[in-house]
Amino acid sequence: MPADRILFVTGRLAEASLRELLATLAPKVGFEYDVAVLGISVAALMSVDFVARKLEPPQQVDRVLLPGWCGGDLESLAQKFGTPFERGPKDMFDLPEYFGDRIKT
């Protein structure tokens, strides 16, 4: 069974740290990933409306993970892009805990 491919959406300031974290986390959890950096410095300031305007249509991803602070109705994004959207943790460094029940030992 192929691994899930997850698109992580972030801002410019968090990009390098997120990529570093995902490089370690993805093999442990068993997913593939892409990172979309939208035209904003601080990811916590994103809203669903902003994401709808700025995100390029995600291709070949199973789901899109937004920062936990991203406000608004995620169903509107799922309908627009044809891909499930979900909110991740409010702090990217909580991603290991977020995926915790799926970490392979």
Written account of the structure:
By secondary structure, the chain is α/β, with parallel strands linked by helices. Helix content is 32%, strand content 20%. The protein has four helices and four strands; from the N terminus they run E-H-E-H-E-H-E-H. The protein has a four-stranded parallel sheet with strand order 2-1-3-4. Helix 1 (15-29) links the parallel strand 1 (4-10) and strand 2. It is globular. The mean pLDDT is 90.
Identify the notable features of this structure and list them briefly:
105 residues, alpha/beta, four-stranded parallel beta sheet
**Cα distance spanning the termini:** 19 Å
- Look at the helices and sheets and give the structural class: alpha/beta
Strand arrangement in the largest pleated sheet: 2-1-3-4
Give the beta-strand count: 4
Choose one word for the global shape: globular
**Could you give a short account of the major beta sheet?**
4 strands, parallel
Spans where pLDDT lies below 50 across 5 or more residues: none
Number of helices: 4
Gyration radius, in Å: 13 Å
The share of residues in helices is 25-40%
Beta-strand percent range = 15-25%
Order of helices and strands: EHEHEHEH
Mean pLDDT: 90
Brief synopsis:
By secondary structure, the chain is of the alpha/beta class.
